[in-house]
Amino acid sequence: MPLAISLRSSLIRWPPSLLFSVTHGARRANQHIYCPSLRHNFKHLNPSTNSFPLCTTSADKRSKKARRETPENLLRHQLDLCSKHGDVSEALRLYDSARAGSIPLSLHQYNVLLYLCSHPSATSSDAERALDIFRQMSIDGITPNEATFTTLIRLAAARGDPDLAFQFIKTMSSAGITPRLRSYGPALFGFCNKGDVKKAHQLEFHMVEAEVAAEELELAALFRLNSQLGRGEDVYRLLHRMRTELRNVSETTAELIEAWFQTEPAARFGFQEWDVDKVNEGVSKGGGGWHGQGWLGKGPWSVGRSEMDKEGVCRRCGDRMICIDIDPVETEVFARSLAQLASKKEVKADFAGFQAWLDRYGPFDAVIDGANVGLNNQHKFSFSQLNYIVNGLRQMSSSEKLPLVVLHCSRVRGGPADNPNNKRLLESWRRAGALYATPPGSNDDCKMNTL
Description:
By secondary structure, this protein is of the alpha/beta class.
């Protein structure tokens, strides 16, 4: 006789052929399902529910197939294929067919259509269709996203209409969508190519207000435009934007800069008299030798490439280069950002206590991550190795002040810290206000990063 097992209201019959049938109440379902993994299913029988997973029926398969074959899903699939193959004309035909059949389009489908209309194979009439599609998108109540606007901006720029591209940027900003660099680039290059310096700078300042950092391509385009127009003040401003935001430039940009200094307008700009005290003050506050007082001196520039020797002296002019320091404003912003990050990762009271301790004993000329130094090339923590670095940094300091040693509290008691010599060493650092032991549960790296 076949084995029968009652599962809730179902009855599973297990004949030798490994066929089982499902009965529900007194009526038997008119179908048999072959299930070679039946024994495996019994292993996963849930005692609390007396049930185990059954095979998917053909009815479920029909349901899934029906969902896949809805007009909306078929349209999505076909548009994705058009996007894959760059088939603009077929995508527009599908769009027209969907409109005629009252098939609703999603944000994704609208974005695919707009993207294809900006494809290199698209024609000018396709670009016009894109604007109509965007208007229909608004009529349908579909809220555009950043990708939507970026595609429209590229389309407008490709049509030679940077004004429209800029208008799209303003629209997305007013809609609460933050533009990205890729949103600004096409419009900026469009204004620069047209020689419209006024609108190019309006767009530049819009980027600054949106806190979107320009990269070398954008700054070089603005520099080239102002250099060609002989706008020395903006050339000066952009040079120092490059100094702070790029630090180094490509060969192409270097050639642009060289070309500017060889022009007549470059020789014409500059002061013949200046306030030496203001220049010195600017150098000390600005960092990196930048004084911010504009062009000093007038006349032809001596332009040439050179190399630095090991001491940082220019082999061409004989002047020594100085270190580039971040200016006070950047320093303050950097310190606040690190403090905020540390406060999120640390117990707030612990970090506040560390700041109070630092105000009392600081500032320090140097800071040592004690664990990294004490364990460098060691299997066990070495206080003698740490002390060697501490003494070396103290000798290098003009004030001969001890550097700050940051150690987790587990390093200052127990184990090697209980050695009498190490105890005396730790106590001498404590008395000098040069040792900070982070409390339990606190991350010493967070303290290091904020110093």
